[in-house]
Amino acid sequence: MDKIMNKLKKEIQEFKYKNYENLELFRIKFLGKKKGILTLLFKELKKYPINKRKFYGKIINTLKKNVQNKIQRYTSKKSLKDENMIFDPTIPGKSIEIGSMHPISILKNRMIEIFRKIGFFYVEGPEIEDDWHNFTALNIPINHPSRDMQDTFFLYKNPDILLRTHTSSVQIRYMKKNSPPFRVLSIGKVFRNETISSRSHFMFHQAEGFYIDKKVSFSDLKQTIQYLINSLFGKAKIRFRPSYFPFTEPSAEVDIYFGNNTGWVEIMGCGMIDPKVLKNVNIDSEIYSGFAFGIGIERLSLLIYKVHDIRIYFDNDIRFLRQFKSDF
Ligand code: DAH
To answer: Does the CB atom of residue 240 touch ligand 1 within 6 A?
Structure first.
């Protein structure tokens, strides 16, 4: 009997925890209800005379304690650092870091919401375009500077394919497939072969809006732009300055007044859609007319958030991005 006790003591002492399974086997081996060694020994003990029963009973009880202590040690909270350890549902969950919305996405969503309220439907177009949708159909002549290698990312093997230089191509895609009336907004990335500086980048985001119906006039355009500016800046003074775009006639640029120090800042282009463009997408310009506008989202965001360098939108500097957490 003493020999057996010593052997068991040694075995319990030398037990090495590997994982939940081997700990469980260890428990069953010694404390299992039917065939656990210590359980059987307790049963066996009943056959012994009282003095021996007391003597060995103490020893077996100590062994039982040792086994229980081992099990306790490996299932306690402290040891749970090891992922193999037993799951403890009382440990507080790990906190998950919640990211923040990128300022460009915030503004994009705001604009979608602003235009949704006046019936504009949101669509997206492809970033890889062909020459016809990006230039020709928009009445941009062959020798227009924006077609130049300096401005546009053409595909080397197929110069008919390019990274769109503006979102106006979405006008063509939408108008070709749908018949008026419609009010549409689209926002997305555009690409230009430009040197990166505090004011320009080879990739930026544009919003494009257009509205076609019977009797759409320049005053509708003015009202819509004023509504957008008021929604974004509160009441603000704007002016329409005559300009030129191949796809609108007449065309205008919109400036917003930022007080005496800053003065007028140009924020967008717009105009009445040129009848030649409508013809290219088989819309009868005798019946329908429409307006269109295009805005650079980064530019707008610079003004709204009073940021001074466009590059910060693409740096992914967490110290900058984190500041927009409260917006959503
Ligand atoms: N596509 C022009 C650009 O990239 C912006 C623009 C101007 C869009 C006038 C329009 C518009 O729809 O009517 O500079």
So the answer is: no
Q: Is residue 98 part of a domain?
A: no
Number of folded domains that form the chain: 2
pTM assigned to the model: 0.72
Segment 148-182, tens digit of pLDDT: 777 899 888 998 999 999 999 999 999 999 999 99
Tell me: do 275 and 139 sit in the same domain. Answer: yes
The percent helix, strand, coil of the chain (3-state, each to 5) is 45, 20, 35
> 180: CA distance to ligand 1 center in Å?
20
Residue of 251, 270, 268, 261 whose CA lies nearest to 171: 270
Same domain, 46 and 109: no
User: pLDDT value at position 93?
Assistant: 85
Helix (H, G, I), strand (E, B) or coil at 87: coil
For ligand 1, whether the C-beta of 296 sits within 6 Å is no
32, 6 Cβ separation under 8 angstroms: no
Q: Which atom of ligand 1 is the closest one to the Cα of 247? A: 13
**CATH number of the CATH domain containing 112:** 3.30.930.10
Sequence-distant (6+) residues with CB within 8 A of 121 are 182, 183, 184, 185
Give the CA distances from residue 224 to residues 85, 102, 219, in Å, rounded to whole numbers and listed in that order: 63, 26, 9
Residues 299/107, Cβ–Cβ less than 8 Å: no
pLDDT over 80 (residue 83): no
Asked if residue 293 has its Cβ within 6 Å of ligand 1, the reply is: yes
Which residues constitute the domain of residue 282?
103-321
Q: How many residues does the chain have?
A: 328
Assess whether the C-beta atom of 134 lies below 6 angstroms from ligand 1: no
Q: For residue 91, is it within any domain?
A: no
Q: What pLDDT does 126 receive? A: 98
Looking at the fold, whether 73 and 131 belong to one and the same domain comes out as no
Identify whether residues 142 and 80 lie together within a single domain.
no
Quick one: pLDDT at residue 327? 47
